[in-house]
Design goal:
By secondary structure, this protein is α/β, with parallel strands linked by helices. It is 38% helix and 16% strand. The protein has three domains: 3-163, 3-Layer(aba) Sandwich (Rossmann fold), CATH 3.40.50.970; 188-353, TPP-binding domain (Rossmann fold), CATH 3.40.50; 368-537, Thiamin diphosphate (ThDP)-binding fold, Pyr/PP domains (Rossmann fold, 3-Layer(aba) Sandwich). The radius of gyration is 24 Å and the shape is globular.
């Protein structure tokens, strides 16, 4: 069969049902083969959108997301999504067309060295040099993308090789990849040391990240946290790995986390990090981060351990394998639970003195925090929420209580504006029976709003709740607080009438400017068939607090 046909046989063998992409000259043979393949193809309007759709699909389902693009600008348009996927450890496979092999290196039409360009931002990449490699590379790509620390894998296929005839036989078993043997079990001696450290700790904090969700280990994490009265906090990527609210829940930590979570980390004597990477949004000023603490670091990626914060007890392994062992070893020690009483007294004082709060408006004006609370009530906490990047993302993380994993899909590491809408489309494809809501800002939505057309064409009934404040809100906040109110290039200027724009694409467009009407408007949007955009006009100059100023310690929170 043609190598392009073998490509789709290999994809189907990997369980692929949905692909996101856009055709072009160099991948035309692949799209010709797609004509006869029994697969659902979602035609995006921009390759970046296709990439984020694949990410949303993967984040919502736990399966590998697949996006395709042609050579040159098609492939380069994917790069933002690839970088986003590597930063957030999203299992994805990106398949790009390439110019004919006789044109490679000649600066041919729409030629770009996409394997070279993406080398720093992929888990692995394959440049096909023989058509017989195509199905084999696909199987290897899926294995690499989905095992160990998940991430993006690129397969670049020259046009002439995708057209070639090859002998094809289905692949069986796990691909043979010498040198790629990600550890999973964890060293039992290290696990026992960690259990003893926990049993002796008087001010412990359990700090979880997105790696818990990637490992499908949320139940194991919850069981571990409840094995004693351990305080629990999560990163913005880890929300949902532990149910919120809960009596052991401190709230999110980090730059816009709760004072309780950040103060607890600052005073802890032992921090157990699970599937988290101690990035700068968590640590603040690294030299002053958690100065009293010893660190247990559990991660499947050995490169992350001691990268930023030295681990006193490193455990390399998959959270789903390590946590049950750690729980078992800890329970066998029969630790004195009363040793944590003074610690919880301290924590309860912080919770009482520094709850999340805001000054609500006395009139009809809609405060952004109120909008998130209304969204939580309207959805009854039962929805997959995607977000773009900015103030609305942080307010959602603060005020929407995620009690399950894979319900909060956002761009954490790269902070990609424009992520939310296409990710929502991908999530809805993955979970058609779930309510999927994108919370976006007007600065973000304008970057990928062409994907309104994708939702209509493929009848994907996502809902977008637009937090419209007329600004790049987070940049405006920084200019106000740290740049002497020297506002530059943050007003959105002549923004579109969003309701009319949505309607022009075939959506239902709605608008709300009165907080008394907001909950009902949201419920109406959720109950309306098809894709719906609700344009919510909020306070223009509201700041997202509390906040750790960049480069400062957690104890220096403001707001």
């Amino acid at each position: 069969m043609r190598a392009a046909d073998a490509l789709f046989e290999a994809l189907k063998a990997e369980g692929v049902e949905h692909i996101f992409g856009i055709p072009g000259g160099a991948n035309l043979p692949i799209y010709d083969a797609l004509y006869d393949a029994d697969l659902d193809h979602i035609q995006a309007r921009h390759e970046q959108g296709a990439g984020h759709m694949a990410e949303g699909y993967a984040k919502a389902s736990g399966k590998v997301g697949v996006a395709m693009a042609t050579s040159g600008p098609g492939a380069t348009n994917l790069i933002t999504a690839i970088a986003d996927a590597v930063m957030d450890s999203v299992p994805t496979v990106f398949i790009t067309g390439q110019v004919r092999t006789d044109l490679i290196g000649t600066d041919g039409f729409q030629e770009a060295d996409v394997t070279g360009m993406t080398l720093p931002i992929v888990k692995h990449s394959f440049l096909v040099t023989d058509p017989r490699q195509i199905p084999d590379y696909i199987h290897k790509a899926f294995h690499i993308a989905s095992t160990g620390r998940p991430g993006p894998v690129l397969v670049d296929i020259p046009q002439d090789l995708s057209r070639a005839e090859i002998e094809y036989s289905p692949s069986e078993g796990t691909p043979d990849l010498p040198g790629y043997k990600p550890p999973t079990e964890g060293n039992i001696k290290q696990i026992r040391l960690a259990a003893k450290a926990l049993a002796n700790a008087k001010r412990p904090v359990i700090y979880g990240g997105g790696g818990i969700i990637n490992a499908n280990a949320s139940e194991e994490f919850r069981t571990f946290c409840l094995s004693d009265n351990f305080p629990v906090t999560l990163t913005v990527m880890g929300l949902g790995a532990f149910p919120a609210p809960h009596e052991q829940w401190l709230g999110m930590l980090g730059m816009h986390g709760t004072r309780t979570a950040n103060y607890a980390m600052d005073e802890a004597d032992l921090i157990v990090a699970v599937g988290a990477r101690f990035d700068d949004r968590i640590t603040g000023k690294l030299s002053e981060f958690a100065p009293r603490a010893k660190f247990v670091h559990i991660d499947v990626d050995p490169a992350e351990i001691s990268k930023n914060v030295p681990a006193h007890i490193p455990i390399v392994g998959d959270a789903a394998d390590v946590l049950p062992k750690l729980t078992r070893e800890y329970k066998q020690l029969d630790a004195d639970r009363s040793r944590l009483d003074d610690w919880w007294k301290r924590i309860r004082e912080w919770q009482s003195n520094y709850p999340l709060r805001y000054e609500d408006s006395a009139d009809s004006e809609i405060k952004p925090q109120f909008m998130i609370e209304a969204m939580y009530e309207a959805t009854e906490g039962d929805a997959i929420i995607t977000s773009d990047v900015g103030q609305h993302q942080m307010w959602t993380a603060q005020y929407y209580h995620f009690d399950k994993p894979r319900r909060w899909l956002n761009s954490g590491g790269l902070g990609t504006m424009g992520f939310g809408l296409p990710a929502a489309i991908g999530a809805k494809v993955a979970k058609p029976d779930e309510q999927v809501v994108c919370i976006s800002g007007d600065g973000s939505l304008v970057m990928t709003c062409q994907e309104f057309a994708t939702a209509v064409q493929h009848n994907i009934p996502v809902k977008v709740f637009l937090m419209n404040n007329g600004h790049f809100g987070m940049v405006r906040q920084w200019q106000e607080l740290f740049w002497d109110e020297r506002y530059q290039s943050v007003e959105m200027g002549p923004s579109p009438d969003w309701a009319k724009l949505a309607e022009a694409f075939g959506w239902t467009g709605m608008r709300c400017t009165d907080k008394a009407e907001l909950r009902d408007a949201m419920r109406t949007a959720l109950e309306t068939d098809g894709p719906v955009l609700l344009d919510v006009h909020v306070t223009k100059n509201e700041n997202c607090f509390p906040m750790i100023p960049a480069g400062h310690a957690a104890r220096d929170m403001v707001g």
